[in-house]
Amino acid sequence: MDFFSASNLHLYIAIILSCVNGVLMCLLASKFLHVIQLSGYRIVGYRAYLKETKWSYVARLVILCFMSLLCVLVTNSLLDGYGQYYSYIGLVFYFYFCIVFIINVYRAPQKTPLKQTHRMQRLTFVVFLIMSLLTFVLISVFSEYVYFVKFGIVSITPIFLPVVVPLAHFICVPIESIFRQVYLKRAKKKLASMPNLIKIGITGSYGKTTTKHILNVMLSTKYNVCMSPHSFNTPMGLTKVINNYLQNDHEVLIAEMGARQVGDIAYLCNFIHPKHAIITGIGNQHLATFGSVENIYKAKKELVDAIDDGFICFNAQNSGSLKMYKECTKNKILCGIDGDYFVDIKNIKTSKSGSTFDLKIGDEEINCSTKLLGKSNIEDIALASGLAYKMGVSLVGIKNAISQLKPIPHRVELIEENNVTIIDDSFNASVEGSKNALETLALFEGEKIVVTPGLVELGDSEYAENVAFGANIAKVANKVIIVNKTNEQAITTGLLKSGFDEKNILKVETLNNAKQKLEEMLTGNEVVLFENDLPDNYI
User: Fold this and answer.
1) Which of 127, 147, 175 represents a domain boundary (last residue)?
2) Residue 510's CB: how many other CB atoms inside 10 A?
3) Confidence at 515, pLDDT banded by 50, 70, 90
4) Which residues are CB-contacts of 336 (< 8 A; sequence separation ≥ 6)?
5) Which candidate, 397, 220, 245, places its Cα nearest to that of 255?
6) pTM of the predicted structure, to 2 decimals
7) Is residue 218 part of a domain?
8) Which contacts of 115-121 are long-range, i.e. CB under 8 A and separated by 24 or more positions?
9) What's the rounded mean pLDDT across residues 39-45?
10) Which of 3, 284, 368, 467 could bond to 494 as cystine, CB 3.0-4.6 Å?
């Protein structure tokens, strides 16, 4: 019987099976979809993920397909001769393996869960259409010409996902461009209706979110401030902030500006048009997508280039920021620690309860105290203080704001729990941030334990940086729990080279495994530093 005959029951089964498999493939593709979303819908981030993880998720899909196809072929062989409908039974194994696979993926801890935005829903729908059509074509061809496999060919469809997901993304690009222009036009119109709004851009390889929060507290003593929430620092993220969060009575907009390639910051500046700017520091974060430190520097400088008559605050403690300051010919402010800067913080005294220091801005000086821990937070305070002062906030107002600052979650956040001190610095650690976190750990007494997967997204320098990270850990900690295999070898090498006792190096697969180990180890009075948590594309 002709497969496409209207009287062929197998045709209708194939259509239903193709749709069901299309849904199943969308669930299996959630990891790839998540990575694309985390990469700001940039294929360069998707390629970096495959490279960094050594195609591990793809390998798991290959194993899934092999096991499923093997079971289908064995089932077809055993039931051959009992009737053509028995060829469907082998698919039971395929669906079972897929469901188990999906459950394991969804149970894995997620640092930033997949957000079901309208854009993600459109992308997922295109994946569904492609996979459903592909499934139907495979079924029709193999049912007609490869009798022994028949409907079992469905079991190989997951292997197409690594290609289908980026293909679906490219298909959606023109559609998303239209939506983006609509949202962008609305945001531009709203900004144009608020000509007196003071717009501030903050960028850098690290410290953006903390500096943003500190500046918000300082400026809120004088202005009605709208701050981009969370880590909304992409074009669509900031467009959403302007369209949904910015109100007519706001006087200041603080926009965190992120980038993964040259041109990203310039794009943001072209529609926000910031008056003032803060450069927190230039490092090698996201080197895997930028390609070189020179490109990172060029991208961050795009914010400086966008400022006309406003002020730009630079971090004197960072060599890249300091270089940019020297090259800048605009209204600029240098902010740092123990130097001859416009904003100078000195006489720092730190403890596990916070820091006290003298804050000098221009010719004025005042003693301040904060509950924030770590040198990196002091640098961020200096940067925010400089711009707040230039915007008319008094030194006393800045001092009061500093005293009210609260730790930002997962950024050197101190937590006391069952006589154990936890330093949570698990949000995307940088090379500079990891050093500061270890300096903070050194302030505490008792047994010190570091839980870390190491530093990622550093491109070709990743191994060397993690060896150095391991060496720095050895100077402070008594025990180390290394999470995931990504940087296991590099960190271990750095630890052992520095004379660290190998029996105090524990290795686990996931953060949950690390927490279980800690529960077995902790007796009280320990200090635990959680330094970095792998982005979800590494899990």
Assistant:
1) 175
2) 15
3) confident
4) 315, 316, 317, 343, 344, 345, 379, 382
5) 245
6) 0.78
7) yes
8) 115/37, 117/37, 118/179, 119/41, 119/172, 119/176, 119/179, 119/236, 120/33, 120/37
9) 82
10) 467
